Amino acid sequence: MQKSHLLMHACLIGILALGAQPALAKERMNVLLLIADDLNTWILEKPERYSGKVVAPNLQKLGESGLVFSNAYSASPFCVPSRTSIFSGISPHKSGVYHNQSNVAASAPLKEAESLFETFSKSGYSMYGYGKITHGWRGKDVWDDKQGHKRDPRPPGAPVQSVGKGEQDWGPIHLSEAEMNDTLGADRTIAILEQKHDQPFFLTYGTFNPHMAWFVPQKYFDMFPLDEVKVPELNPTDFDDIPPLGDQVVGGKRKFTQAVLKAGLHKSAVQAYLATTAYVDAQHGRILEALAKSPYKDNTIVIFISDHGFHLAEKDHWQKGTLWEEATNSMLMCRVPGMTKPGSSTKRCVSLQDLYPTLLNLCQIPKPDHVDGKSLAPLLKNPQANWESTAISYLYDRYASIRTEQFRYIRYQDGQQELYDHKKDPHEWKNEADNPEYTETLEALKRRLPALEHMASQLVRNRKK
User: Considering the domain 27-454 in this protein, what is its CATH number?
Assistant: First the structure.
């Protein structure tokens, strides 16, 4: 009698569990993906690095609510290849898209790729995107609503700075904050969070800023008085042991960098970068506040990334486009309800290419065969879990770099290479590639990179004569 009762009870539980499965399937988590362009990683652990104060309080608060990856790296230090690799799932060394002048349309792997957004759309998600998201490669148009990015107009009389030329310029903007394009994109993103949704949504917002030129309202400049601004430490002998191909990488921006320093404008330029970052933080903060007030706050995955890093005269360079730490180290913060622990961080070396498989994993969506990268779910659950570095970056004609928690190795061509020991040299000022004490380490890291002959040739866009 007792066994019969227990059997009936077990059957009833089983039936209820089966009946609950469709309901649970419908309660899939939403995704809010936030992106900033050209944002350096100093706000992660060293907010005092350039200004002595917290520059991005909203992003810092987001980081404190989830998991911060302090060693996240872009697959490329340029917008087009970085975003193409993130959203297509295809590494630059397979697509041949290594820089912004790449002929993206000529890449055979990209022609067959299914974008992250298409995969989510096919899985029943409503898709919304505002601002700078994709760049270069877009995949199929699957958006329920979308508004791309555009630059704000330059102030009348630009260039503002004596060294200013094109996008290499900065100063207060003549527009009100409400009129700026990144503000308008945030407005549209907030409107989506205020709507009622009957199915899960994937909502993406990307700021054009802090991409140059740095033109934002005066109030953001006022937050960082020049006498309080700190500039990065520079090493005049930094290039004494850098190989010729590494030196050539910075050739295009060296003249501008030297002009800024010679004109005594280094502090002014850093101030403008900080001001623009504070403006960006304010827009992302408005969206995060809207999410917190919405009914979706407890079932929405929040991811924040920057597409790559940024030099502010370090390594005699301005902007991005190198394989050193400043250009490849990227922002990555994750808050996953029921999984990430508030205030956690990890130093495991990961790639932004891991984002595609991670989101699929979290939302229980099958991964397309072409997708590179590895799900970060083990680190989201346990930030100190064992992890083999996925932080490989690519540049120009098949140059490549790998970052581990202690080392960075860079391979150019013709046997030219660099090796830095971050435990002793966080600035990457001493190239240890010729130091016999590091031979074993160098060779092991070299083997982690795809062989030159196995890397796709770079696809160069034809220019009009």
Answer: 3.40.720.10
Confidence band for 47, pLDDT divided at 50, 70 and 90:
low
β-strand partners of 172: 216
Query: Torsions phi, psi of 344, nearest 5?
Result: -95, 160
Residue-wise pLDDT tens digits, 280-292: 999 999 999 999 9
Please state the domain extents for the chain.
27-454
**HSE (CB half, 13 Å, CA atoms) of 343?**
0
The rounded distance, in Å, linking the Cα atoms of 220 and 177 is: 10
The helix (run of H) or strand (run of E) holding residue 18 is: helix 2-26
Condensed to tens digits (0 to 9), the pLDDT of residues 256-272 reads: 999 999 999 999 999 99
Structure token pair of residue 177: 């904050």
Which helix (H) or strand (E) element contains residue 301?
Answer: strand 300-306
What is the SS3 assignment for 271-283? HHHHHHHHHHHHH
Question: Which residues make Cβ contacts (< 8 Å) with residue 90, sequence separation at least 6?
Answer: 84, 109, 110, 113, 370, 371, 372
Asked whether residue 153 carries a pLDDT value surpassing 70, the answer given is yes
Structure tokens at 394: 């690519």
- Contact criterion met (CB below 8 Å) for 118 and 142: yes
User: Is pLDDT at 63 greater than 60 in this prediction?
Assistant: yes
Q: How much of the chain is in helix, strand and coil states, percent to nearest 5?
A: 40, 15, 45
Q: E strands of 198-299, at which residues?
A: 201-207, 214-216
Residues in the chain: 465
Q: How far apart are CA 65 and CA 50, in angstroms?
A: 24
> What does the DSSP assignment read for 425-461?
-TT--S--TT-GGGHHHHHHHHHHSPPGGGSPPP-BP
The continuous run of DSSP H or E covering 37 comes out as none
Decide if pLDDT at 465 tops 50. Answer: no
3-state secondary structure of 5: helix
Q: Which residues, 6+ apart, have CB-to-CB distance to 274 below 8 Å?
A: 50, 51, 55, 223, 224, 229
Pairing assessment for the beta strands 329-330 and 407-411 based on DSSP bridges: unpaired
The total of other beta-carbon atoms located within 10 Å of residue 144's CB is 13
pLDDT value of residue 182: 98
* DSSP 8-class letter at 168: B
Please give the radius of gyration of the chain, using alpha carbons only, rounded to the nearest integer.
23
Handedness of CA 278, 284, 137, 41 (dihedral sign): positive
Burial of 180 (0-12, 13-18, 19+ CB in 10 A): buried
